[in-house]
């Protein structure tokens, strides 16, 4: 049985200006020890999905439906005390900005020990020892002394290590990392990703890694979900997503980023911009930007995910003609910014 | 740059081509957004209308009354509210309603003028201090700190004693004290804004300091200033009432609400209406301005309000 | 009125070749003296944000400036723009020495340098319409611009960056991030600058929008012959858009050369480490790479180290001589420079 099975999860934000369907029928499957990457841009719903899994959605947001089966329990239906029990102990989360996710007024030792004492029965001294050991595991030198410092005394990379240590101290089954390296320098990013990988191998933790960086996904993930406008448009193994991408968004995204091996004059561009989530989306969300020749108006329900075999799923869309290879339809121009 | 616009835009003629009509769409300014948010706040809107109603009452009201605020009727003396005198009369037989209206004119005038004076001085002073920074800023703010420490009442009394009692002196005295808070708020707003990239862009475009302060900095800090100004008016009115209460403010036969309240308070047990009416209007004005100020704060800073 | 003043165009056209030393920096340093401690009167040290940088940029070139936090690239760009004066060294634009000019004249020279910032949300005045912002910028070069001619000029600029002129009365918050960045580019072009410094112009944008802006910048350079300094931490982006790349570390340039050479065949070990840290969107490559993972954090210029400043993070085994080396930027291969620290160089001249 999979460790995490999310089925048709939907979360919306009920705002004065309209209803924003941030997560629209998203399904996820994750086995123990596996790393899943969730890739998307702003408005894709990748972060909200993670918060929904842990039931961290607050007004004006609401989880509309679906199920989150974690090791046999539906997290959306368990009691509040049970979900609090699970958070931090069996499922941990780390966030993008380590400065704001650590309490600046408390020493690091206080914060780590607090987490331990909340979930287990050990006494203060033992908790402190375990915390120091954890910090050493994540590569913080002189941990016994530094643990008593305040967050602002650590650099960005080190704060993120502290976050990882705090998240892993209870040896959770699942670690959700929401853009953990976006705010860090590239050499630090490499260190942190390496660290997460090593910890994962050691503890057997499953990881959900949320990011907008395809390079990070290629290097660390086993499976990938590509999200756009709150929906999963394609999912599969890393190799399938990178070498056999079928959805125009996945394909266009890969073509549009310059890699160290990009040659040529101009880059491929994806016209327009991510959609305004406050307006209801008819049919296929990517339609206004899709480079493939159009086949009629997008109306009706969102396209379904079809299985192409071997766990590779793609949104089946009848509004565009995907017969030609993407290179022939993508332009390299400077498109006028679409409304 | 080597090649010019011609190469980019096409042939030479393009540049001299007549202007094609372009349907320019209207923009939605941040002020417009704020106004919409304010309109949704029922209490603030109600307060605004109440305040406007009071102002009209005080300014226009006397023209509709058959009585004059100075017309005394010593035989009648103080009388309770009746069909002739809706608010009654005071001890000298003067119609209280007209007195309340005229008193309101003065109180409101003091409130508005002193606040505007404080605003003008405070905004320019604070923006300059925040923009220039360094030692000049430090010196300017130390000066503010020193003035803050002066006891207001004694300061006003000294002024009154030195220059005699006049309405204008009161404006100056009160304005002189209120600008301090304004300056501090503007200064901190400017310091926060100074780091924003659009200010760096303005500097790199070679804009003069004056242009940067007035066109780029001040419009962006004016939000909190408006809120403070709205809350300063009632504070000033209270100060004026306090001074008048002490006998330092407005002189008879002129009256402000403060004077009326003082008179009313003296005869509170026998002629309660003398206190009730001016106090009611005074309190109503203060409440409506305070709620309006709150509403403005929420409207102008969407982050602090809950959507 | 043209986008370019007719004078400038004629002059440039007359000159056959492009200037080699369009912008040149000679031993430019930006040291911030932290003063003395109030009580002990001991010097609090000097922050060497930029240390002895020499550089020449050709007209029409895009120079990529790469480095991590604390390397000094932002301070260097602001020093070039004369927003802060260099502590020492010369900065010359088209042969004219800028560092010697008095403050008043600097303001006039400022419109020759324009900057595009990272954060499209903070780089535009939220209370001004796009039209007002562009008109104000245009007037720095043409103070008497008014009425129809001014309007036409604004329309031209908006079209140049791919925006719909019908939106010119809108406010910044009504646009998306990518559109705001285009407005910022239009504003940077309005005073007809000679040099544009783009400080991480696409880092804050969505990935699918980045290529639009990068293409736009490249097209503007090709069509208008703009000279540009492109600052970024993302080597893939810089390699794509820049002609030459300069890699900075702790206020110094450690490598300088043609973009493809620096990326494909780096001389300095730091450059190689930067390269190997960049995740590539290709799983097979990622699985088979050998990474050079550096220890520790990017250093802060607050406590500058002696000698080869790279030694705390270097994967090379520590050697005491590292602290006494004085590396200088020397030409190893034709057109390819590197700091000649023997412990950091992959190969010598």
Describe the structure.
The complex is a heterotrimer of chains A (339), B (307) and C (349). By secondary structure, chain A is α/β, with parallel strands linked by helices. Chain A has twelve helices and twelve strands. Among the domains of chain A are: 103-169, no CATH class; 246-329, no CATH class. In chain A, the strands form two sheets. In chain A, strands 6-7-8-3-9-10-12-11 form an eight-stranded mixed sheet, sandwiched between helices. Chain A has a four-stranded antiparallel sheet with strand order 2-1-4-5. In chain A, strand 4 and strand 5 form a beta hairpin. The longest helix of chain A is centred in the middle third of the chain and has 18 residues, at 186-203. The model of chain A has no long low-confidence stretch (mean pLDDT 85). Chain B has twelve helices and no strands. Chain C is 32% helix and 21% strand. Chain C contains eleven helices and twelve strands. The relative contact order of chain C is 0.13. The interface between A and C is large, with 55 and 49 residues.
What's the oligomerization state?
heterotrimer
Please give the radius of gyration of chain A in angstroms: 21 Å
Give the mean pLDDT of chain A: 85
In DSSP terms (H or I, runs of 4 or more residues), the helix count of chain A works out at: 12
Low-confidence stretches of chain B: 1-18
Features:
heterotrimer, A: alpha/beta, eight-stranded mixed beta sheet, 12 helices, C: 349 residues, 12 strands, 32% helix
Short description:
The complex is a heterotrimer of chains A (339), B (307) and C (349). Chain A is α/β, with parallel strands linked by helices and 339 residues long.
What are the SSEs and their pairings?
The complex is a heterotrimer of chains A (339), B (307) and C (349).
Chain A: E1 4-15, E2 18-30, E3 35-39, H1 46-53, E4 61-70, E5 73-74, H2 80-86, E6 91-94, H3 98-101, H4 108-119, H5 124-137, H6 143-146, H7 156-168, E7 174-178, H8 186-203, E8 206-211, H9 214-220, E9 223-228, E10 231-237, H10 238-243, H11 248-256, E11 305-307, E12 313-315, H12 326-329
Parallel strand pairs in A: 3-8, 3-9, 6-7, 7-8
Antiparallel strand pairs in A: 1-2, 1-4, 4-5, 9-10, 10-12, 11-12
Helix pairs in contact in A: 4-5, 5-7, 7-8
Chain B: H1 5-9, H2 12-16, H3 30-40, H4 42-64, H5 96-132, H6 134-149, H7 152-163, H8 167-194, H9 197-204, H10 209-246, H11 257-266, H12 273-300
Helix pairs in contact in B: 3-12, 4-5, 4-12, 5-6, 5-8, 5-10, 5-11, 5-12, 6-8, 7-8, 8-10, 9-10, 10-11, 10-12, 11-12
Chain C: H1 6-14, E1 23-33, E2 46-57, E3 62-66, H2 73-80, E4 88-93, E5 96-97, H3 103-110, E6 113-116, H4 130-141, H5 147-160, H6 177-189, E7 195-199, H7 207-224, E8 227-232, H8 235-241, E9 244-249, E10 252-258, H9 259-264, H10 269-277, H11 283-288, E11 329-333, E12 336-339
Parallel strand pairs in C: 3-8, 3-9, 6-7, 7-8
Antiparallel strand pairs in C: 1-2, 1-4, 4-5, 9-10, 10-12, 11-12
């Amino acid at each position: 049985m999979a460790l995490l099975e999310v089925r048709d999860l939907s979360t919306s934000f009920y705002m004065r200006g309209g209803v924003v369907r941030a997560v629209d029928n998203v399904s996820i499957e994750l086995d123990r020890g596996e790393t899943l990457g969730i890739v998307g841009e702003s408005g894709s719903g990748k972060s909200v999905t993670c918060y929904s899994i842990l039931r961290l959605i607050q007004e004006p947001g609401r989880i509309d439906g679906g199920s989150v089966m974690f090791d046999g329990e539906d997290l959306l239906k368990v009691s509040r005390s049970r979900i609090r029990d699970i958070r931090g102990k069996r499922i941990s989360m780390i966030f993008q900005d380590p400065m704001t996710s650590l309490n600046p007024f408390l020493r690091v030792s206080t914060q780590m020990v607090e987490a331990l004492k909340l979930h287990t029965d050990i006494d203060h001294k033992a908790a402190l020892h375990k915390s120091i050991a954890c910090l050493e595991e994540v590569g913080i030198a002189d941990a016994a002394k530094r643990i008593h410092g305040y967050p602002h005394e650590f650099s960005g990379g080190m704060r993120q290590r502290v976050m990882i240590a705090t998240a892993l101290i209870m040896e959770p089954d699942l670690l959700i990392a929401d853009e953990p390296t976006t705010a860090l320098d590239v050499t630090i990013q490499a260190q942190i990703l390496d660290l997460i990988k090593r910890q994962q191998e050691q503890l057997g933790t499953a990881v959900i890694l949320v990011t907008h960086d395809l390079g990070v996904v290629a290097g660390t993930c086993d499976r990938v979900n590509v999200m756009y406008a709150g929906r999963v448009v394609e999912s599969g193994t890393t190799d399938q997503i990178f070498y056999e991408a079928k959805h125009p968004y996945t394909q266009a995204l890969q073509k549009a980023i310059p890699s160290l091996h990009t040659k040529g004059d101009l880059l491929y561009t994806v016209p327009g911009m991510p959609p305004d989530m406050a307006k209801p989306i008819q049919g296929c969300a990517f339609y206004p930007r899709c480079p493939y020749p159009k086949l009629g108006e997008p109306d009706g329900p969102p396209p379904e995910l079809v299985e192409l075999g071997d766990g590779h799923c793609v949104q089946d869309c009848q509004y565009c003609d995907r017969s030609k290879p993407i290179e022939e339809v993508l332009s390299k121009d400077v498109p006028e910014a679409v409304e | 740059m080597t090649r010019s616009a011609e190469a980019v835009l096409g042939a030479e003629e393009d540049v001299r081509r007549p202007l094609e009509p372009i349907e320019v769409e209207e923009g939605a300014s941040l002020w417009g957004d704020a106004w919409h948010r304010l309109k949704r706040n029922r209490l603030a809107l109600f307060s605004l209308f109440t305040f406007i109603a009071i102002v009209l009452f005080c300014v226009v009201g006397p023209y509709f009354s058959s009585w004059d605020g100075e017309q005394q009727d010593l035989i009648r003396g103080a009388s309770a509210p009746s069909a002739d005198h809706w608010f009654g009369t005071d001890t000298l037989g003067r119609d209280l309603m007209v007195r309340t209206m005229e008193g309101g004119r003065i109180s409101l005038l003091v409130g508005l003028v002193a606040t505007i004076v404080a605003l003008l001085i405070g905004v320019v002073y604070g923006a300059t201090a925040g923009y220039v920074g360094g030692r000049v800023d430090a010196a300017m703010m130390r000066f503010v700190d020193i003035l803050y420490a002066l006891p207001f009442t004694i300061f006003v009394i000294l002024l009154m004693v030195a220059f005699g009692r006049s309405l204008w002196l009161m404006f100056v005295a009160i304005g002189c004290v209120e600008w301090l808070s304004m300056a501090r708020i503007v200064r901190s707003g400017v310091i926060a804004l100074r780091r924003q990239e659009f200010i760096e862009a303005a500097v790199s475009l070679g804009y003069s300091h004056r242009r940067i302060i007035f066109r780029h900095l001040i419009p962006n800090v004016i939000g909190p200033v408006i809120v403070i100004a709205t809350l300063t008016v009632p504070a000033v009115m209270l100060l004026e009432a306090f001074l008048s209460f002490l006998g330092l403010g407005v002189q008879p036969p002129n009256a402000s609400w403060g004077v009326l309240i003082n008179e009313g308070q003296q005869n509170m047990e026998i002629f309660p209406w003398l206190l009730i009416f001016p106090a009611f209007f005074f309190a109503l004005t203060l409440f409506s301005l305070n709620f309006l100020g709150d509403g403005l704060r929420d409207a102008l800073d969407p982050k602090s309000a809950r959507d | 009125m043209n986008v370019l003043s007719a004078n400038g165009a004629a002059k440039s056209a007359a000159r056959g070749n492009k200037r080699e030393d369009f912008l040149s920096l000679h031993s430019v340093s930006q040291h911030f003296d932290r003063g003395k401690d109030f009580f002990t009167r001991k010097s609090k040290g000097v922050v060497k944000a930029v240390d002895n940088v020499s550089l020449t940029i050709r007209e029409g070139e895009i120079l990529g400036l790469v480095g991590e936090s604390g390397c000094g690239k932002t301070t260097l760009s602001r020093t070039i723009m004369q927003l802060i004066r260099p502590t020492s060294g010369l900065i010359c634009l088209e042969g004219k020495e800028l560092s010697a000019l008095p403050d008043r004249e600097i303001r006039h020279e400022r419109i020759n340098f324009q900057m595009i910032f990272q954060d499209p949300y903070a780089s535009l005045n939220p209370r001004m319409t796009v039209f007002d912002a562009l008109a104000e910028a245009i007037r720095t070069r043409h103070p008497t611009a008014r009425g129809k001619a001014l309007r036409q000029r604004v329309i031209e600029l908006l079209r140049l960056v791919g925006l719909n002129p019908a939106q010119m009365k809108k406010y910044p918050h009504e646009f998306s991030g990518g559109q705001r960045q285009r407005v910022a580019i239009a504003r940077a072009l309005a005073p007809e600058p000679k040099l544009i410094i783009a400080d991480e112009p696409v880092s804050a944008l969505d990935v699918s929008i980045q290529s639009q802006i990068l293409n736009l910048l490249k097209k503007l350079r090709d069509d208008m012959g703009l000279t540009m300094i492109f600052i970024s931490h993302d080597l893939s982006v810089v390699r794509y858009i820049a002609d030459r790349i300069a890699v900075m570390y702790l206020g110094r340039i450690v490598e300088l050369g043609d973009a493809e050479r620096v990326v494909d065949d780096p001389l300095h070990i730091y450059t190689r480490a930067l390269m190997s840290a960049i995740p590539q969107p290709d799983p097979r490559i990622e699985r088979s790479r050998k990474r050079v993972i550096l220890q520790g954090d990017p250093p802060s210029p607050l406590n500058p180290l002696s000698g080869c400043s790279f030694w705390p993070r270097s994967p090379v085994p520590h050697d005491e001589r590292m602290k006494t080396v004085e590396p200088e930027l020397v030409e190893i291969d034709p057109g390819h420079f590197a700091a000649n620290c023997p412990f950091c160089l992959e190969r010598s001249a």
